[in-house]
Design goal:
Elements (H helix, E strand, L loop, with lengths): L4 E5 L3 H4 L2 H11 L5 E6 L5 H14 L4 E6 L3 H4 L2 H6 L5 E5 L3 H8 L3 H11 L3 E5 H5 L15 H17 L5 E3 L5 H13 L3 E5 L19 H7 L9 E5 L7 H8 L3 E4 H20 L4 E6 L21 H9 L6 E7 L11 H22 L1
Parallel strand pairs: 1-5, 2-3, 2-4, 4-5, 6-11, 7-8, 7-10, 8-9, 10-11
């Protein structure tokens, strides 16, 4: 039995209503014969969202549209909610970020019903937060519940076979917590890896409001799990206000080399490249790029922007200075379409960085 299709639509509601994208969704779901369930989890949109999409899908020729408003777990756990998607050929998620989706319907009858339809070939679509919850079988609101720790295990399990097949992956995040799952997979195949990080933050906190698995803690967890070689790793681009004096000192005590933003600018690309090569040596090496290393004037679409960052030319030059190095993999993280500007410059820059990573891989293969 073939799994269904996931369509991820980045951006806010005005983009979701784009008729070209929605027409594609309808076509994959069965055209005019489709049965579409519209699931809204945002209390601010209410039943209005479902009725609005009923009208939109009606204009596209679909006659069987079932709006469902589930803003509380009891509503999502009601048999009526599950029945609304029982035989749907398309499920459209709207009106909430991934955290809301996870906390509202995680582990409920509605979540089980959506997953069942997906496994029977249905099309799942929605905003980047909604549909990405289904992407690559990472059911953020599935029957097992939704925790960052669980999702990291899913990422590791999905990525490891690709690495064993010799693939050099470029993973697109997602907040930076995804890197812990990635590093687990890389370490399982290559052993502990050196880390090359470009980021405004070191992401080595122990916890945040009691949560030990989130986007500010992945590299501490990776160190504790023996996934990285801190003595071979280098973190660069750190800047902005600190929560405590220990934010930088603790990271250095762990063994990571820190190159703050101001020092990085003084080094320049050539010296940065030399420092990275010297630090990494002959260890297997992984590179992670957080889009917030760029100044928010160029990349506003991120969750924790810090002013006075790198400009695109500087960032790309730093990456190109690593040409000839052979990496086990890469990621580009913290691109958040909902916060991007009208020209979608953050998305454009994220895609450009990913392209540079592909180029590094190609150059390494030729050398």
């Amino acid at each position: 039995m073939a799994d269904g299709t996931v369509i991820i639509i980045g951006g806010a509601e005005d983009k979701v209503r784009d008729r070209v994208i929605l027409s594609r969704f309808v076509s994959l779901a069965g055209g005019q014969a489709a049965t579409i369930a519209v699931v809204s989890t945002a209390s601010s949109l209410g039943l209005e969202a479902g009725e609005r999409y009923r009208a939109i899908f009606g204009e596209l020729g679909v006659r069987k549209v079932r709006p469902l408003h589930a803003v509380t777990r009891p509503q999502a756990n009601d048999d009526k909610a599950a029945m609304a998607v029982r035989d749907a050929t398309g499920v459209f998620l709207t009106g909430g970020n991934q955290l809301r989706l996870s906390s509202t319907i995680g582990g409920t009858r509605l979540a089980d019903a959506i997953l069942d339809r997906f496994r029977h070939g249905a099309v799942v679509a929605g905003t980047s937060a909604g549909a990405s919850a289904m992407s690559s079988h990472m059911i953020a609101f599935g029957a097992s519940g939704a925790t960052p720790k669980h999702r990291m295990a899913q990422i590791a399990a999905g990525l490891e076979p690709l690495l064993r097949a010799g693939v050099v992956p470029v993973v697109l995040g997602g907040d930076h917590s995804v890197v812990l799952g990635e590093l687990r997979a890389h370490a399982a195949v290559h052993g502990p890896v050196a880390l090359v990080l470009l980021d405004a933050h070191a992401d080595t906190w122990d916890d945040y409001y009691g949560e030990r698995y989130f986007h500010g803690t992945p590299f501490r967890r990776a160190l504790e799990e023996g996934l990285v070689l801190p003595e071979r790793s280098i973190m660069a681009g750190m800047r902005g206000p600190l929560y405590s004096r220990s934010d930088i000192s603790d990271t250095r005590t762990m063994g990571f080399e820190i190159v703050p933003d101001a020092e990085l600018r003084e080094l320049g690309p050539a010296e940065y490249g030399r420092r990275v090569r010297s630090r990494v040596g002959d260890a297997p090496v992984y590179m992670s790029f957080d889009i917030d290393v760029l100044d928010p004037a160029f990349a506003p679409g991120t969750g924790t922007p810090e002013v006075a960052g790198l400009d695109p030319r500087e960032a790309l030059a730093l990456i190109r200075a690593l040409a000839g190095m052979r990496f086990t993999g890469f990621d580009v993280v913290e691109v958040s379409p909902a916060y991007d500007g009208p020209g979608e410059t953050t998305a454009l820059l994220g895609a450009s960085v990913a392209y540079e990573f592909l180029a590094l891989t190609a150059v390494a293969e030729r050398s």
